[in-house]
Design goal:
The protein is of the alpha+beta class. The chain is built from eight helices and six strands. The structure holds iron/sulfur cluster (3 copies).
């Protein structure tokens, strides 16, 4: 992520996108689609053009050759290249809120089991993760939802594979 983006708060980050509401319909699926994507099922032709332009290499494809984000490969920098490249009516202009995602930390987190680890907090460009110590040598991973942009940097950094990122539940049910 560019240095200036790393130093912004989520409020500042999202302020860049305030002109368009977050109405991406494809966030109702279980998989994570590229930021600003909507109507993938209706309009994506499976041409594959969005993946090679992603500088982070995090766009893969599902069984219909529709794009899916794979955070195990890296983080989204919100560069907008995927949206700009798509020739179909799949993406909103990359000027709105990019997506609504949830982050969860599983019980096998090293820090929460008394093993020193701060990897997720160290890589978070938004400083959205705190890992305060608890009694008994353990620590607790706390994600500030207001600060988190859903970039995914923490997921691939986790040595325990304890972090999952998914579309927000209320949208998934919508
Ligand atoms: S916004 Fe940029 S980094 Fe994020 S998925 Fe699209 S092309 Fe990749
Ligand atoms: S997805 Fe992870 S690394 Fe990115 S802002 Fe949220 S907590 Fe930080
Ligand atoms: S990187 Fe993974 S194992 Fe380490 S503190 Fe964060 S969630 Fe826990």
């Amino acid at each position: 992520m560019p240095t200036n983006a790393k130093q912004t708060s989520r409020r500042e980050f999202l302020a860049r996108f305030r002109t368009v509401p977050a109405t991406h319909s494809d966030q109702t699926e279980d998989v994570i689609r590229p930021p600003w994507a909507r109507d993938i099922q209706a309009h994506c032709t499976g041409c594959g053009d969005c993946a090679p332009v992603c500088p982070e290499g995090i766009i893969t494809f599902d069984g219909k050759n529709h794009p899916v984000i794979d955070f195990t490969k890296g983080e989204c920098t919100f560069c907008g290249a995927c949206a700009h490249t798509c020739a179909e009516d799949v993406f909103d202009q990359p000027t709105g809120i990019p997506w609504q995602l949830d982050i969860a930390v599983a019980k096998n987190c090293f820090a929460e089991n008394g093993i020193y680890c701060r990897s997720c907090g160290d890589v978070c460009p938004q400083f959205a993760i705190r890992i305060p110590p608890q009694l008994g040598g353990r620590a607790r991973v706390i994600v500030d939802e207001d600060a988190c942009t859903g970039c995914g940097a923490c997921l691939s950094a986790c040595p325990a594979n304890a972090i999952t990122i998914s579309p927000k539940k209320e949208q998934a049910l919508g």
